[in-house]
Amino acid sequence: GNSVTQMEGPVTLSEEAFLTINCTYTATGYPSLFWYVQYPGEGLQLLLKATKADDKGSNKGFEATYRKETTSFHLEKGSVQVSDSAVYFCALTFSYNQGGKLIFGQGTELSVKP
Amino acid sequence: NAGVTQTPKFQVLKTGQSMTLQCAQDMNHEYMSWYRQDPGMGLRLIHYSVGAGITDQGEVPNGYNVSRSTTEDFPLRLLSAAPSQTSVYFCASRAAGGYTDTQYFGPGTRLTVL
Questions:
Q1: pLDDT at residue B110 above 80?
Q2: Chain-centre distance of CA A36, in angstroms?
Q3: H-type helices in A1-114, by residue range?
Q4: Which phi and psi (to 5°) does residue B50 adopt?
Q5: Phi, psi (rounded to 5 degrees) for B84
Q6: Which residues of chain A have a CB within 8 Å of the CB of B35?
Q7: Chain-centre distance of CA B66, in angstroms?
Q8: What is the pLDDT of residue B70?
Q9: Hey, are the CB atoms on A89 and B42 less than 8 Å from each other?
């Protein structure tokens, strides 16, 4: 079946460090890929997305490239800030998914220390 | 424009009690969904709707009921609460137009079943 796997958390970094959160997927077909972020006490917000192979999604200094050959969509940021502390979810969907259903990874908690 | 709203924010139930989690959106979105979030498991789809009067089951529908009488509202009913339903519940909505369009999430309801 279709699934998303993320690296285990929590990830703890110092401010201005480089961030990578790994995400790989298993899918029959060609999904669209997303990163959602959940700040403490809030709902999920879309961070970025990519809809086809080799697309790069970017937003707020974060970026991720859709790699079909490695079935990956790793999230990166060059210099993290304390305000980036949150839980990050990788997710996928298909054009044929009724209701726009999303399949989520388990989430990776990021903690950035000053 | 309030987006997606959920009530209550917190709820404690005893085993066997019933309750309804409310969800409303003011964006005129056709698609609405309920997810539950459990530690280490990401978000899992409970039920979804593609329009007023149309609902369908997601990945984990047992113990939950939904109906959609208006475009705006999509309540989730717990018929007889069980401790396994202790979770954080998120409602989401999306326009029907494009499957890669943003899903908007509410702030969540944290439910504890004793």
A1: yes
A2: 6
A3: none
A4: -105, 5
A5: -65, -15
A6: 104
A7: 9
A8: 96
A9: yes
Tell me the chain A residues in contact with residue B105 when contact means C-beta distances shorter than 8 Å.
Answer: 36, 43-45
Cα–Cα distance measured from residue A29 to residue A109, given in angstroms and rounded to the nearest whole number: 29
pLDDT at A100 over 70: yes
Which residue among A42, A89, A99 sits closest to B31, beta carbon to beta carbon? A99
Which residues face A35 on adjacent strands?
A: A48, A90
- A19-78: pLDDT as tens digits: 999 999 999 888 999 999 999 888 899 999 999 999 999 999 999 999 999 999 999 999
Q: Which of B103, B109, B106 is nearest to B29 (CA)?
A: B103
Residues 6+ apart with CB under 8 A from A2: A25, A26, A27, A28, A31, A92, A94, A103
Taking the CA of residue B58 and the nearest CA in chain A, the distance in Å comes to 8
CA–CA separation, A108 and B85 (whole Å): 23
pLDDT at B57 over 90: yes
